[in-house]
């Protein structure tokens, strides 16, 4: 059952990826643009945000507010390359809140937005996620 579930997850994620036409000059294994609203991209962005929050000294949690660009590369799993805007929420880190229930800061003095580049490797059949690159400014 586990293998079937992993295959189904992989099929759903990969089937959402745009495959170039056979006449394309794009090389196999090259990163390809993908829909910024796809479930796989949104999930990868959230992993990037979790990694940012775990390494940040900010009192508040940040949450993804907009995914501006997404690329995916199929290499021993899925490697997502994402340009994401994240914003400070009202949830404090020590509360360990679910990001879904965290609203963005409304108080002007506490609002903050960062532009981030995340690389997220997802290997569904091994249940592994690795976020080797997090650059935010």
Structure description:
The structure is a single chain. With 137 residues, this protein is of the alpha+beta class. It has a single domain (32-136), classed as Nuclear Transport Factor 2, Chain: A. The chain has two helices and five strands, in the order αβαββββ. The protein has helices at residues 2-15, 39-55, and strands at residues 32-33, 60-74, 78-92, 113-123, 128-136. The chain has a five-stranded antiparallel β-sheet. Strand 4 (113-123) and strand 5 (128-136) form a beta hairpin. GO terms for molecular function: cysteine-type endopeptidase inhibitor activity. This is Egg-white cystatin. InterPro entries: Cystatin-F (IPR042886), Cystatin_dom (IPR000010), Cystatin_sf (IPR046350).
